[in-house]
């Protein structure tokens, strides 16, 4: 499923096995520089072209947490959690599998792994796997980020 119906979606709208794919977003040099400035993470692999060229990746790459943040932003743009999301519960089994380079266009695949209602009954937990993909199909990052979400009004 690429284009979900407009949101918000509530707990009852989800079922294990659903897959959503976001639009793409190109990672720019400005993204990396801004993230470095905001976080104070100025490691040369992100900020020094000459030193990064000598390193493992041969050029500057995006911060791992910038990739995760972009994945979350892309999922947010699906619109299905606007007005129903309560809180992120964890980041689990997150893996940084391939570098994200300046100019890479990434998309995020969201898979619903599980759905369960909380004991209070007014909300539930979505077990979700996010996969951040580069345009060539390379998996850059992947992990689970469960979400506490509202149940629809009974």
UniProtKB/TrEMBL annotation:
MaoC-like domain sequence ranges: 16-118
Where exactly are the transmembrane stretches of this chain? none
- InterPro entries reported in the protein's UniProt record: HotDog_dom_sf, MaoC-like_dom, MCH/BMMD
Gene3D superfamilies per record: Hotdog Thioesterase (3.10.129.10)
State the superkingdom.
Bacteria
UniProt lists the family membership as follows: Belongs to the enoyl-CoA hydratase/isomerase family.
Q: What is this protein called?
A: Dehydratase
Native species: Streptomyces spongiae
């Amino acid at each position: 499923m690429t284009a979900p119906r407009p949101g918000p979606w509530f707990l009852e709208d989800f079922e294990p096995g659903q897959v959503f794919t976001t639009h793409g977003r190109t990672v720019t040099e400005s993204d990396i520089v801004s993230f470095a400035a905001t976080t104070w993470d100025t490691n040369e692999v992100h900020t020094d072209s000459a030193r990064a060229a000598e390193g493992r990746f041969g050029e500057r790459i995006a911060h791992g947490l910038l990739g995760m943040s972009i994945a979350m932003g892309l999922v947010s743009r699906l619109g299905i959690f606007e007005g129903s999301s309560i809180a992120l519960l964890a980041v689990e089994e997150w893996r940084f599998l391939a570098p994200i380079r300046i100019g890479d266009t990434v998309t995020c695949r969201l898979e619903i792994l599980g759905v369960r209602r909380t004991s209070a009954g007014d909300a539930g937990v979505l077990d979700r796997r996010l996969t951040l993909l580069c345009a060539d199909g390379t998996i850059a990052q992947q992990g689970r980020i469960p979400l506490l979400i509202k149940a629809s009004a009974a």
